[in-house]
Amino acid sequence: MEITKVLDAKGLACPMPIVKTKKAINELESGQIVEIHATDKGAKNDLSAWAQSGGHELVKHEEDSDVLKFWIKKG
After folding, report:
1. Contact residues for 59 (Cβ-Cβ < 8 A; gap 6+)
2. pTM for this entry
């Protein structure tokens, strides 16, 4: 998986991880992937729902100790 952009949203509370992800996605071409690092537990549901509603694909997510990592492919 080729990552185009990495977004550090650690320490940010809702809705900032979504706001920053939206800005990052807007800078990508269709098919490119942004990797997001967040610490807000709500980001798991928020980013999943946001990606689906925006026509993007949540490729995968994982938890690495306190950091949630997401990979979203621009639709």
Report:
1. 1, 33, 71, 72, 73
2. 0.94
pLDDT tens for 3-32 read 999 999 999 998 999 999 999 999 999 999
Range of 21's domain?
A: 5-73
Tokens of 40: 């807000």
- From 12, 14, 16, 28, active-site residue: 14
Q: What's 69's domain CATH number?
A: 3.30.110.40
Query: What three-state secondary structure class fits 64?
Result: strand
Distance in angstroms (rounded) separating the CA atoms of residues 39 and 10: 5
| Catalytic (active site) residue 14 | yes
Measured between alpha carbons, how far is 31 from 17 in angstroms, rounded to an integer? 21
Burial code (b: 16+ CB inside 10 Å, e: under 16) for 1-12 equals: eeeeeebebeeb
